[in-house]
Amino acid sequence: MPDAMTTLLANAGLSDLERRLRDEAIDETTILDLDEGDMKEIGLKMGPRRKLLTAIREAKDRRTTPGADWARSPPPPPPPPASTKLHPPAKPAPGLTVGAKARLRKKAAPAPVTPAPAPEAPAASNSDALECPITYELFVDPVTLEGDGVVYEREAIENWLRRGNLTSPATGVALKATQTKLIPNAAVRRRAAAARSRTARAHLDAKTQVADDATARIQALEAENAALRDRLRLSVDRETEAAAKLREATRENARLQKDAKSANNYKNRAKKATARADELDRVLASVLAHSQHLEAELATLRNMPRLLVRNTTAPPVTPGDGDSAY
């Protein structure tokens, strides 16, 4: 069987919020102690926040009625809010769930004071808001409902009233048939148009910024591509130059090898010539020695007649005899 919080949320059309509230440790014992700050902390938008605040306020009113089921009874007209805080509540410790914070405030707060019955009164105007509490969208044709003073989008509130609803969609206040007049709100229309213009301008500026960033990126990429092409061209030129130098070095090496071969040939020929010269020197030395020997023998032979003449005892030969001295 659903508990009181489930029933309260279902009657307010907020059943989709139950899981989020229970995740924050909120149950039927603490839901009536929630305030707008708690709902903002949970992340509720303005429309669901107002509906839940209205349902909580009406449930508190029904709880003061003997025998009434605060979660199921139909909502009576709410009394004007009465201040019941005699001193500020205790400050919750950081890191607590919203339900735990609500329990701490409940313990620190004084006993609730039952407000005195009051006549019906419309809720405070939302003339500062720029979104319809029904559609949650920016106003296009804002009108003020005479019965509650709240600004709505014309089409949304007309559809609400056309379905036979005689309560305020924002506050739940009962409306009389004479309080359904819709009053155009030019001030809100101007502010909504200005907000729409600012939003469009912001979107345009964002798109322009994206386009500028893309253009700058493209230019940077083009510059980088040009630099890479230049580096590639320079690299090709260097490789071409290196290849030419390599070919020249190869030719020079071939010439050097040829010259080295020629030098080896000349060296071998020089060695052979040196060996031949050495051989000729030896031959010449031998010939010279032999010549000297022959000259010595010749000198001996030349001196031999005188020796013979000196040593002989024969009479001298008279010239003219025709005979030799020998």
From TrEMBL:
SMART domains recorded: Ubox
Record domain U-box: where: 125-202
InterPro entries assigned to the protein according to its UniProt record, in alphabetical order: PUB22/23/24-like, SAM, SAM/pointed_sf, Ubox_domain, Znf_RING/FYVE/PHD
Region listing for Disordered, in residue ranges: 56-126, 249-271
Pfam families associated with the record: SAM_2, U-box
Protein name: U-box domain-containing protein
Basic and acidic residues composition-biased segments: 249-261
PANTHER family: U-BOX DOMAIN-CONTAINING PROTEIN, WDSAM1 PROTEIN
Organism per entry: Pelagomonas calceolata
